[in-house]
Specification:
Number of domains: 1
Radius of gyration: 20 Å
Number of strands: 0
Shape: elongated
Number of helices: 6
Largest sheet: none
Helix content: over 70%
Length: about 90
């Protein structure tokens, strides 16, 4: 917890920053997955096609094995790779 508070001086602000970054990562990964799976979209549900589409299954498995967005965001935060700003502090200056 002390590592989280080091950067911002407040654990809750750090958690808020991490959660916003995790949401960004999650949306990016979801869009990427959906675009790759859209190539396989068909209008007809055919049982044979479900079993034959191994490439689609492999893509899905790859994305399932990726680290969770929260873990990626925590790593980025602790490594100082996340840029953030506090609008209330900027307006006071």
């Amino acid at each position: 917890m002390a590592d989280f508070a080091k950067e911002t001086g407040n654990v809750y602000e750090s958690v808020s920053i991490i959660s916003k970054r995790a949401n960004q990562i999650s949306v990016k990964i979801k869009e990427e997955l959906n675009s790759k799976l859209a190539e396989f979209a068909t209008t007809v549900d055919n049982l044979e096609e479900v079993f034959e589409n191994r490439e689609q299954i492999e893509i899905s498995k790859y994305y399932e094995r990726l680290p969770k967005a929260t873990n990626l965001a925590i790593e980025e935060f602790l490594e100082g790779k996340i840029f953030y700003r506090m609008p209330e502090e900027e307006s006071a200056e």
